[in-house]
From TrEMBL:
Family stated for the protein in its record: Belongs to the class-III pyridoxal-phosphate-dependent aminotransferase family. ArgD subfamily.
Name of the coding gene: argD
Residues with N6-(pyridoxal phosphate)lysine modification: 253
Protein name stated in the entry: Acetylornithine aminotransferase
Organism: Paraburkholderia caballeronis
Subunit structure: Homodimer.
Length: 406
């Protein structure tokens, strides 16, 4: 019989090495804390990469999981199901959209969005209108199409020729966008806050310029809200804090609070170009994922919860300011809601991983966004006691890296 004892070393023995996980193995989570196989606890500022927006083992989500799990897990796309219809109706009531397509991840949601945009352009304007405009340092997923559209060549190099008709422009550069978006452009895809690219918010004027250019040239505007969506910025979706409405919106990550689900939201007029058989999925919109996501959206769309996100954002930024006052480590702290990036200054340039490792050693789980940015994406309902304890531990981690106070 195969030995079922596993450790961190087991990863190196059995897994394809596309990840380099931490030296400890998490085995249990509750709220904003996680425990490893040795029983040590960690304060979770990472949120599973902006996923566990309601924390670990949320009791209302566990109830939905158990109740729906006892009824129907999966039925296949030859049939519909009640939970997915309820979820679609709820999302459409809360957003600009009136049609939804469900997938398993943000990458698949973006794949669907990009394919829909090209299909719309082909059927309305002909084969010459196929160009997709994206932005440097953007991230849209790991399928070959989405990784090519993303603005980080390190993720697409080494796999052969990339799909054609993709243009990358500087983020927040209005003049460059106006020059590049033209009659061949079928879509512009943009993150309201670039997450993996360094937690860089889009300038509202930049988003307005993209909307105007798309309207002028018959192109579709796609908002990738995989990371910013479902309450992360203090609004259900980040576009709702702007005066810009996209034609297509993608959402995932927090949508299932850790249960895999993604969605593409759009209008009925555009959705009509995806006829039966044009696109599809086996697992997308299965009843178990949809039931959980429906409860997630119900809970997170509560205005009081969203106000709490904005309040916690101010608290974290204040605590980061105090860390900087003591250690002189940051060049800038930026972001919206509970998607916050703290960029290291010249003294610590390239050392984000050092801070990440020191935080783990002190009992804090956190993220980076490139070699120079510490990223915070905790639970949207993180208790004040956990937040305070996490920063007390983080202060000791900063001492380990930066030394004594100035």
């Amino acid at each position: 019989m195969t030995d079922q004892t596993v450790t961190r070393q087991t990863f190196d023995e059995v897994m394809v090495p596309v990840f380099s996980p931490a030296p400890f193995v998490p085995v249990r989570g509750e709220g904003s804390r996680v425990w490893d196989a040795n029983g040590r606890d960690y304060v979770d500022f990472a949120g599973g990469i902006a996923v566990t927006a309601l924390g670990h083992a949320h009791p209302e989500l566990l109830k939905v999981l158990h109740d729906q799990g006892a009824k129907l897990w999966h039925i296949g796309n030859g049939y519909t199901n009640e939970p997915v219809l309820r979820l679609a109706r709820r999302l459409e009531a809360l957003t600009f959209a009136d049609r939804a397509f469900f997938a398993n991840s943000g990458a698949e949601a973006n794949e669907a969005a990009l394919k829909l945009a090209r299909r719309v352009a082909f059927e309305r304007h002909g084969a010459d209108k196929f160009e997709i405009v994206s932005f440097t340092q953007s991230f849209h997923g790991r399928t070959f199409f989405t990784v090519s559209v993303g603005g980080q060549p390190k993720y697409s190099e080494g796999f052969g020729p990339v799909p054609q008709g993709i243009v990358h422009l500087p983020f927040n550069d209005i003049d460059a966008a106006r020059r590049a978006i033209g009659k061949q452009t079928c879509a512009v895809i943009v993150e309201p806050v670039q997450g993996e690219g360094g937690v860089i918010p889009a300038d509202p004027a930049f988003l307005r310029a993209l909307r105007e250019a798309c309207d002028a040239h018959g192109a579709l505007l796609i908002f990738d809200e995989v990371q910013t969506g479902v309450g992360r910025t203090g609004h259900l979706y980040a576009y709702q804090d702007t005066d810009v409405t996209p034609d297509i919106l993608t959402t995932a990550k927090a949508l299932g609070n850790g249960f895999p689900i993604g969605a593409m939201l759009t209008t009925a007029d555009l959705a009509a170009h995806f006829k039966v058989g044009v696109h599809g999925t086996t697992y997308g919109g299965n009843p178990l994922a949809a039931a959980i996501a429906d409860k997630v959206v119900e809970l997170i769309s509560d205005p009081a919860l969203l106000a709490g996100v904005r309040s916690r954002s101010d608290t974290i930024k204040d605590k980061l300011a105090k860390l900087h006052e003591r250690f002189d480590v940051f060049a800038e702290v930026r972001g919206k809601g509970l998607l916050i990036g703290a960029e290291l200054n010249e003294r610590y340039r390239g050392r984000a991983k050092d801070f990440l490792a020191a935080a783990a050693n002190r009992g804090v789980m956190m993220l980076i966004a490139g070699p120079d940015v510490l990223r915070f994406a905790p639970s949207l309902v993180m208790p004040a006691a956990d937040l305070n304890d996490g920063f007390a531990r983080l202060e000791r981690a900063f001492e380990d890296v930066a030394g004594a106070a100035r």
